C-alpha cells in the first residue's frame, strides 16, 4: 500500500464522482494523513438520491433470488480482498488486524446470509370474516433507504444497512462516518467490479450536514442509523415532518479502560 494519501470519490449511479471539497482522514495512532475523502455538497446528495430513486422500480421488479445473487457476488469480492480491506480498517479506525479481518469475513458471511432470505420473503392469504372473501398480503419495498454509519464498526454496518434493503427490493444511499470513510469507498470499489445495476447502491461522504440532508429529504423512505443518542434524536426530528420510517440503533456499551500497570498482552 502506498504511503501517499488516497483520494476517494463518491459512488453515485454506478460511477465514481469527484466532490468539490474534501475531508482529511488521519491514522488515529500516528496522525499520518491517509486520505482525502469527499465532503459532499447538497447537489451530490441530491444526485445520489435521484439515482437511487430511478433505479428502485427496476430493481424491485427483479425476482428476489436474482437480487440475492448480487449479494453473493459482492460477498465473494470481499473474501478475495480480505487483507486490503482489513488493513484499511486498521489504519483509519485503529482496530487490530485480527479483528479487522474478522469484521471483513463476517461482513461477507452476513451478505450471504441475507441472500438466503430471498426464499423467505412471502405473502399471506388470510380467510376473511365475510363470505366469499380472502385477504391477500403482499410485501412491497419501501423505496429509497438512507444508511448512516458510525465509526466503530464501519465496514460490517455497510452490509447491515445495505443487504436487508437490497434483498427486499429497495435501493440505498450510504453515508459513512467522516472519521472512518475509507473502508466504505473500498467497499464501493468492489461493488463497482460486479454487475450490480447503477443506482442501486450509492455512497456519499461528508460531515453531519450530509446526514442531516438525507434525514430531511422527501426522497428518502426509510433511514437506518447506528450511532449516538444525540445524533439519533436530531435524525428523528429532521425526519418527523415527512413521517419517514426510522430504524435507530443508539448508544454505546462495554467501554474498556486499560490501566498503566495491566498485563498488556491481555489488553490487546
From TrEMBL:
**What's an example GO BP annotation here?**
gamma-aminobutyric acid catabolic process
Task: Give the domain of life.
Answer: Bacteria
**Alphabetical UniProt keywords:** Oxidoreductase
Molecular function (Gene Ontology), one example: lactaldehyde dehydrogenase (NAD+) activity
GO terms under cellular component:
cytosol
Give all residue intervals belonging to the Aldehyde dehydrogenase domain: 19-263
Q: Give the EC number(s) listed in the UniProt record.
A: 1.2.1.22
Q: Where is the active site?
A: 249
Q: Does the keyword Cell membrane apply?
A: no
What protein family does this chain belong to? Belongs to the aldehyde dehydrogenase family.
Name of the protein in its database record: Lactaldehyde dehydrogenase
The gene name reads aldA_2
